[in-house]
Amino acid sequence: MSPSPDFATPAFADVLAAAACIAPHAHATPVLRVRSLDAEAGCSLLFKAEHLQRAGAFKFRGACNAVWSLAPEQAARGVVTHSSGNHGAALALAAATRGIACHVVVPAGAVAPKLAAIAAYGAVLHRCEPGIDAREAACEAVRRRTGANLVHPYADARVIAGQATAALELLGAGGDLDAMVVPVGGGGLGAGTAIALAGVSPRTRLYLAEPAGAADTAASLARGERVADLVPDTVCDGLRATIGAPNLAILRAAGAEALTVDDDATLAAMRLFWQRSKQLVEPSSAVALAAVLQHRPRFAGQRVGIVLSGGNVDLEALCGAGT
Amino acid sequence: MSPSPDFATPAFADVLAAAACIAPHAHATPVLRVRSLDAEAGCSLLFKAEHLQRAGAFKFRGACNAVWSLAPEQAARGVVTHSSGNHGAALALAAATRGIACHVVVPAGAVAPKLAAIAAYGAVLHRCEPGIDAREAACEAVRRRTGANLVHPYADARVIAGQATAALELLGAGGDLDAMVVPVGGGGLGAGTAIALAGVSPRTRLYLAEPAGAADTAASLARGERVADLVPDTVCDGLRATIGAPNLAILRAAGAEALTVDDDATLAAMRLFWQRSKQLVEPSSAVALAAVLQHRPRFAGQRVGIVLSGGNVDLEALCGAGT
């Protein structure tokens, strides 16, 4: 699923438009403070609680902006994507808010509770073999047959502008920030955050927290070109995608820096956050806190915004059936 | 640790006084709604989020009221209790808010994270053998040596009046309720809720959700007298205490009804609540939701208040070290 050929980098005005577009549908999630974690990290942490977003992840913002940006005659043909995770559920729910069809191509082996969520929001599931080629082919076949509009999970200007609204709200509620740390997979949230920062707070440095087992963004930034041949191996199921080409371009231009984190550190940070905040965030969210804890000197005494990307935890995988 | 001989059943005025007393120290926790759980339960559920209370449980309310009710010369001698769980941590933090000493007698085999929390709040830990006799003896020894004031976890009028403020706030924020469901162990929360309901909303029925493996309250209500010889066997570590004598008297007079729940149903309800709300509540909280789900016809179409008693989950025990 390559980005649409007409991809144009969103401007800050597109972010503001996205904020207005999704406001009737998305939650303005709270910004959480956890005093004991501030003490632990040696800085002031402001957590944007996107695990409390509709469908349980920030992905609803981008999906919602994409769905509601369609002209009525386009919208009537529905939307299609391939995603076994939060983007699929988010697009399904966004389509439901507009009463249009949603097709989601899901690969064999996808996590059962996430598929159940996608189906519960009313989407039509299309199974395919695992692997990006099979997924793209199945997605294209559905698109041709139905005329549905492709909504890419991250290499899509409407999606990026939508994801940017999380950072916009965090900056609005949290005040001046020295740094912002967001998890990075395909780079929709990262690119959106870069655009929001450029518009509101150019001095705020942007860090991308990335699993060491899926560190294609770190490699791409280091090499100066997109590294797309890594095979992801991480517990962070939301961060296995390869950085999108337009996303990488936006992040490079913004001077974003990647911080890689081992899964062990991510799971320890997740458990710490669960215990201290009583908020159930998924590993893909905890990677950002783990990055801060792993680089304490860099953030010492600063005001640091963190986007808690989602709360769709696969409890059976993490805790076993005994939970 | 028998109730103090001067126990006098708290009146509704004592609940109002407790609310004023603890207001500078305790959180007024939010009332949460989870639409998909309403659909699942067939009724409107209003969750009082005491897992977000200070020290992670409603217990802080009663402990705080007890600590701040002491005359200055009493307070100077500190407080003492025996508890390996939420009451110990709550009393430790409450004592810290007043700057007085807190002694907590903890039995061998107590859960390590809960002990760490008690110590982190500044309490002095006193180890003893397991078993109620050893605990009471150790507690009495500390009391004699230090002159500290005994604060019983539930058979204490100040504690009961403090716990009642959770229900008071829920009734204030949640409006008219047909039923209130609270977990029951020693009966501090239950008795407090009964007094709050009598003062604010006498028509609201009170249900006590109790683990089937620690159903001494159900047995006591059925028999008309206190049944104190059951050996608790439940995953709900906050609900293993035997109902207190004054607590039982208050609950009998209020016409409260016990609903017993198997641990399997409690753990399923806990996992469901985690997934739907992204809020990490402990098994002792989930027992109340499980009771409602198990008795759908009884609550059909009603407005039902549930006190989420705490969020101090022993993740290692529930999920294993891999989490």
TrEMBL record, chains A, B:
Entry keyword Oxidoreductase: no
Source organism, top-level taxon: Bacteria
CDD domains listed in its UniProt record: Thr-dehyd (cd01562)
Keyword NAD on entry: no
Domain Tryptophan synthase beta chain-like PALP: 23-310
PANTHER family: SERINE / THREONINE RACEMASE FAMILY MEMBER, SERINE RACEMASE
Protein's recorded name: Pyridoxal-phosphate dependent enzyme
Organism, scientific name: Luteimonas salinisoli
Organism lineage string: Bacteria, Pseudomonadati, Pseudomonadota, Gammaproteobacteria, Lysobacterales
